[in-house]
Amino acid sequence: MHALTDALIITKRQLLQLARVPEVLIFSTIQPVMFVLLFRYVFGGSIETGQPGGYVQLLMPGIFVQTTAFTLAATASGLAEDMQKGLIDRFRSLPIARSALVFGRTLGDGLLNILVLAVMGLAGYLVGWRPTSGILKISLAFLFLLAFGYALSWVGIFAGLAARDARVVQNVSFLVTFPMTFLSNAFAPTTGMPKPLQYVAEWNPVSTMVAACRQLFGLENQFGATAGSFPSENPLTMSLIYMVIILVIFVPLSVRKYTNKVTK
Amino acid sequence: MKSIVAQDLIKTYNKGSIRALDGLSLDVEEGTVLGVLGPNGAGKTTTVRILATLLTPDSGSANVAGIDVIKHPDKVREIIGLSGQYAAVDETLTGWDNLVMFGRLYHLGKAASIKRAEELLERFSLTESARRPIKTYSGGMRRRLDLAASLIVKPKVLFLDEPTTGLDPRGRLEMWGVIEELVKDGVTLLLTTQYLDEADQLADDIAVIDHGKVIARGTSDQLKREVGGERLEVVVEQAHVAQTMAIVAKVSGTKASLDEALRKISAPVTTGAGALIEVLRALDGAGIHPLDVALKRPSLDDVFMALTGHVAEVEEVPTDSKKKRKGGNR
Asked: Are B180 and B129 contained in the same domain?
């Protein structure tokens, strides 16, 4: 099956890039680790959670989700850069499957998340994060996170193809994902927000993901559930629905855009 | 047998407002080199992108090695190599990484990919830098690596889109050497260029294009004859103008013309440097010290002047924005 091996070679290329420029990996893990430390020690003391183990238990799922959400920007800017440099032309003049490049890239960015999450999990553990739900559910939570990152990476493919410049798309993606991750239950209870924002926050896929992870890590579903809305009551189901929706929309859209963009 | 045939290709952008190709037709005999010569915006890149299956024309047809590029692009991709205006390789990876990766994408298998990569690195004098990231390469080295990447499966037909644009003179000479070697191996080559001397050096046949059409076709000698060949130019003091005109006319065999303001005497010559020496000897013998002497070879501008009556219109497109607008680069 050439389409699959082609995609895997593209994936391998990304991993090789990391091996050649390890700084990229170092810096892409430093940021989330820094977030862990800042939130843990700056806000952790003043936020009352009523949670055994304190704020860090609620914080870690939030930072995990935020970091995987940034996959969108990574995929988008990586692809935009390849287009800008003419590398996509070379790939397209090769006898490989059309879809190999986009599938390979989303997979590569997904795999990168494994490393980043592992480093963050370790950092979290060092500052007191102790999930209590057992290995099976903890693994499931990480699987959820990886799936979420993978789904968003398809949005990134679309954004990268739509963009004209790699730097612009990186900035725009951050402008979208940053407020999305804060307008959620990731770092603070949604109950403190103005009412209209509470609804936005509760339907925000970031919130459902965070709530789902908290459940899977063995926490009460806190920092939300004020409106008693469907997503806050059923975060696991709702997160799955969101991922399926994103994939169903953006996989065909991105593949089509890729094919069109380059033959026009 | 014709290896490349393009017929009546039309390609428009921006809903028809820009006609990049306006009924372009050309063909290339198997095992020969066609130089496609034209200014920026003439349609060179669009032509290459269509023939290399990266772009679909609005109308017209094209075959490469007898295969229809529109109907069977996958089959065409298996037998062509393409190297563009900018090195399309992964800059963070090493030269070795890149070539092995492309070998794998041509489905060569791991061992064969490595073997081929090493052969090509050797051939293009890149073995020493094989383990360094491309970022550290010079412009000429990047182009050579890019060319190597397009030769992984010995292509039957090779497209080189402005292979020396942006290179310094040394890089250009190196690149010419590499391309000449390739041609000896019998590949059919379509090469685009903005430089007449490059087409002259590398191509068996030249197609001059302007505004998306082929406006002249022939060997370099044929085209030069149309342009009028080389001109000898001499600038002297006012006092020596008349005498110099006579000397130049004698060497040239035709009447010399005079630019009075510049005191520049010029005439077409056919013997190149020989004519230059002859004129200098004669001037020296007459005790005349020229202020300036030049042998001017016909430039792309001269070709355009002769063929179209207008100077090649070079579109002022900054190179980086050209790269950004995929397909907008005509």
From this structure: yes
